[in-house]
What we know:
- This protein has helices at residues 44-47, 96-105, 326-329, and strands at residues 5-11, 17-21, 25-27, 36-42, 51-61, 75-86, 109-114, 124-126, 138-149, 155-166, 178-185, 188-198, 202-204, 209-217, 225-236, 243-253, 264-271, 284-285, 301-302, 313-324, 331-341, 374-378, 387-388.
- The chain is mainly beta.
- Strands 3, 5, 6, 8, 9, 10 and 18 form a 7-stranded mixed sheet that branches.
Amino acid sequence: MTVTFRVFKKASSNNKVTIYLGRRDFVDHVTGSDPVDGVLNVDREFLNDKKVVVQLVCSFRYGKEDEETMGLNFKKELTLGEMQLFPPTSSPPPTRLQERLVSKLGKNAFPFHLDFPVHSPTSVTLQPGLEDAGEPCGVEYFVRGMMVDEGEGTKKTCVNMVIRKIQYAPTRPGRQPSTTVRKDFMFSPGELELEGTLDRQLYHHGDDVKVSFVVRNNSSKTVKKINVSVVQCIDIAMFTGGHHTARITQMETTEGCPIGPGSTLQKELTLSPTSKAHIRTGVALDGRLKGDDTSLASSTLLADENNRDIFGLVISYAVKIKLFLGAIGGDLTAELPFVLMHPRPNLRKMIKADTLASVGSFNCSQDDPTMEDTLFSAKDMEMTNLTHRTTNKRD
């Protein structure tokens, strides 16, 4: 079967070191992640006695780059994996894609294999402001290939290729979210009751969220208006107390109000949490700031949310239903957590990077290798229990 296949390439500024990857999105299965398999091609004449290594690096920026002064740095880089390619050391057997690339590129190509740690975070980017300059905040991964000359003051020739670590929605959704909250008043008899329900727990990006709620006013107070919103909760796992909440979309209504003493109101509203119409500064995206397929960051699935080894950004979503009683009566809030993720693709229709066929001729792009990743095309390729983090209810 003849199909079109892409191989991603990134070269250093002097074209002495080049990285080849069959894909740039790697799936986190909660209990483990897809390995990073690729090939590093070096200039043999430039190699001499230099050492060649490849690293899997996680970059976590938690502050604005333009605010870094007096040596202050708001970015941390963690080397999650490293493999020495030259002088050669013991390495796992190459994949079929690596074998075809090595046979095509020659003896100057070295296959590598890197693994994500169990508790490594997914790729997340925070939407920067219009006046913000520099790198956006968030978690980013890249594969770094280096040629180190230790005899000349440790000179390095390196190249970085950005990759993403993503998660897909579970096949079995959880229970339908539902909650009931009540509020009594110190100097008034009776209580105000709010019961909220979502139509399901798991939503895919682009789906509408249907919110149903019932207000039973058994108090002497009056409900003046109702606000329903979808909020994104961002927990910074590396810092104590690091928490940020961004409102994605909201709907405020006075239909059926005021709800006087002894009255009951039953209502259903529909919200559309999408990034295209509701991108605000500080909202977490899926790691892509450019392109039409940019979406909100998916909910983070954790095997054990109480594990202290978790780092990075943990994303969760919730619907908040808020009743306003006026300046004296205060308000009453119900919170319904849900999961927002991309559906798992049909693997039978996808072309795996580890193909069984030979790699055809490569047609190099004329893009600047120091600025953007260039694509190589090839033909005659042959196809071959979860928990989510929720937030506490807040009035």
